[in-house]
Amino acid sequence: MGVQENGSGGDNGMSSVPLGAKNKYRRMDSELNDYSDDDLEVAPYKQTQQERTKSTRKYVFACAVFASLNNVLLGYDVGVMSGAIIFIQEDLKITEFQEEILVGILSVISLLGSLGGGRASDALGRKWTMGIAAIIFQIGALIMTLAPSFQVLMMGRLLAGIGIGFGVMIAPVYIAEISPTISRGSFTSFPEIFINIGILLGYVSNYAFSGFSSHINWRIMLAVGILPSVFIAFALFIIPESPRWLVMQNRVDEARSVLMKTNEIEAEVEERLSEILKAAGIGTGAGTGENQEEKAVWRELLNPSPALRRMLITGFGIQCFQQITGIDATVYYSPEILQTAGIEEKSRLLAATVAVGIAKTLFILVAIMLIDRIGRKPLLYVSTIGMTVCLCGLAISLSLFKGTTLGVELAILSICGNVAFFSIGIGPVCWVLTSEIFPLRLRAQASALGAVGNRVCSGVVAMSFLSVSRAISMAGTFLIFTILSFLSVGFVYKLVPETKGKSLEQIELLFQKDRNWNEEEVELSDTQQLVKNEGN
């Protein structure tokens, strides 16, 4: 191969391959000079941006954790009551009907908390509403712990239900409003994670304290639930107020300050702020006073536009399907279900419920890792189809194999599978969707309505499960849950859009168009742009 000597420096023995910008055979000294000119200017910016991204994610993560602490209270109550009720029956001599009322009334009464929470969060702010929720629950839990009779126990249960209703409704809304678009799904799933942690702690508490006398053990189990409220009081002095609520109060500078802390890319703060201002109607002449605005909100919810009607059907429907497929029956009454399957000893029953709690908690972590990667809708498909199969398996184990070793094993596997599939999809995604899809001016109140539907369905299931099971058998009851779970698959297919990678304001625009969700190609422009920015 003929190689010419370098005309300007032939004495160095280098070949005269042209060193133009388009030639891939570049001299090392030239390459070093090129990088030193351009990259040295960009490097400090990149380093600063990386540090900002890391700091922002830690900050939002901490806010999401603290905001979710109220949900530990709900989860703990659900888990602990499944075992405590066994000893409450022995101590207070309550009937089966009273047992159903005691277990289920918390879900029904929490709807009052959810409705009140929507109004309180609009008036007082998102974070202080969470504080009120913790105080009310603490009072209720203390009354239950010291209750000498069923009537006093019910009074404490009612107060605890109101507190839980406040907390469950507001946490997803708050987290959705402070989270960056790219990670909103993961962070908004935190409340469901903490519900599952609470359930697991409740099951462990049942097992740990079951050795005490029946007059003492259930009181200790309920008293332990007060502890998370102490951390909530501490959290209120750390977490910021929602920037979207601050905008609605015309505190725009404070909202900008919060957005500076919660957005990874500083340049996007003003863009996000302008979107929030537009969504809130600030500067457009919308709204002439707080009372008039509140009336307008409820008037719009009761007489919705076609777009809002689609939002309400999606949000309210997914909340109801989350509960009418029987998850609370499985969690509250797992000892009774396993007893029907063939397990008799109390310690074995409570130990088996711990396995259920572990399965439920572990799989919520899978959902957190996947929800912003593969989207909300694929997780819903996996969840609803898997739950349908497991509920059918549980019905079979309680009918064809009842009282056999195979029946017990199939029942435990089906219950664990059911709660696992619930946790991987409809459990967390339900709350993510209802906190995402509604317009800013309606978000708190509309989310409260969704939470009301969720709590009513939960209460109906919890308060009727034993009676219906006695009437048509436990296997028949789970066959009904199987059919309802199958219907939820169709609901997801027809009426739930994909919201991954879209800002809250962009999601609102989705419902402005009458489109078929399953034919829509998912828009990932926000995600792709952020990935591109990080790659650059």
Automatic annotation (TrEMBL):
Keywords in alphabetical order: Membrane, Sugar transport, Symport, Transmembrane, Transmembrane helix, Transport
Protein name: Major facilitator superfamily (MFS) profile domain-containing protein
Record-linked Gene3D superfamilies: MFS general substrate transporter like domains
TM region positions: 59-88, 100-116, 128-146, 158-176, 188-208, 220-239, 349-371, 378-398, 410-434, 472-493
GO CC annotation terms, alphabetical: membrane
Organism expressing this protein natively: Lactuca sativa (Garden lettuce)
Family, as annotated: Belongs to the major facilitator superfamily. Sugar transporter (TC 2.A.1.1) family.
A molecular function GO annotation: symporter activity
Localization of this protein: Membrane
